[in-house]
Structure formats: structure tokens, C-alpha cells
Amino acid sequence: MIRLLFTASSGLVSDSIRVLTGQGVTHVGIQTSLNLVLSAEWPCVVEQSLPKFMAGRYLVAAYEATPEGEKHLMLSRARAHIGDKYAATEIPGFVLARLWRRLTGRAIKNPTHDPHKEICSEFVLYLDDETGFSTEFIGLDPETTSPGDILARLQTGGPTFRGVDGSAPHK
Questions:
Q1: Domain of 36: which CATH number?
Q2: Are 146 and 17 in contact (CB under 8 A)?
């Protein structure tokens, strides 16, 4: 099982993400079984129980890998990052890159990006096997992509994921 869980919560960081992105989604994790979720959390990437992951959050949408999609998603690639530190120091650069894109329409790289640290949306993109099958991920810059950006891509449909429990249908 590979399922992306898009969540939201309240608090300083979550509220800041909502203001900055204009999106209601503030976090995304990778559900790997009925009770386990991989996620970039403070202080590091962890695999934790579903109840622990959901504590203080509410589910916005869930997307499950299609049978063909599971063949092209690399859960081992994501699991290899367990223990990587959370990229709190990347947040100012993320904010700058997002504001620059909003104001000018042009993308810039996150100037504070650290390849050895993760944010939740960047971490989820490690699932892609880079063969081009996962068209939903093509063109997303891991350094500036938000959970809401990934959700918006999945809502347009593609071969890799389908909506679960009321989320937008798979096309």
C-alpha cells in the first residue's frame, strides 16, 4: 500500500504555510500500511503509527497508488531518508522562492536548500522513480513545492494515484 495523506492543522507553522501558499493543506505523509506513515516531521524523517501522524491534524484528502503506479513508486527510496533531519533552516528560502514566483511569475531555487535535510513535500517526491510514469510529479521542484501543489497535481488526474474516500476521482 502506498497512499498520500494530505492534512492540515492549526498553529504558527501551519497557519504560515496557509498564508504563504494560499492553500488549505499544510502537511503530507506517505501511508505504507494500515497503521504506518512515513513523514518528514520535526526533528527528522520518521515512520510512525497512523494515530501518531494524525494527532493534532485532520485529513484533507487521500490518494492511493494505482496497481500500475505501485510498480513505478520507490518506497525504498523514501525509506532511505528515515533519520534525515527536518529542514527548518530551509523555510526562509522556501518563503523567498514562493514569494518571488508569486510576484514575478519566475521560479528561483531555494537559496537555503540543504540536500541532507527534508521538508514533507520534498520528501514525498522521492517516491518518483524518475522514469516519467508518474506524470503528476513532472516539473515539481522539490525545493519549492508545497503539499498543496502536489495535491493540485493529483486532482487533475494521472496514472499513478486515485482519490480515496471522497477525494477527487482518478481520471
A1: 3.90.1720
A2: yes
Contact 18, 54 (CB under 8 A): no
Q: Which pLDDT value is given to residue 143?
A: 76
- Check residue 80 and report its DSSP letter: T
pLDDT in tens, 8-17: 988 777 777 7
The tally of domains found in the chain comes to: 1
Helices (H) and strands (E) in the chain, counts: 7, 8
- Minimal CA–CA distance to 153: which of 117, 119, 128? 128
Residues forming a β-bridge with 49: 36
CB 4 within 8 A of CB 161: yes
**65, part of any domain:** yes
- Give the residue numbers spanning the domain of 141: 3-164
Q: What is the pLDDT of residue 170?
A: 42
Task: Write out pLDDT tens, residues 62-93.
Answer: 999 999 999 889 999 889 989 988 877 667 77
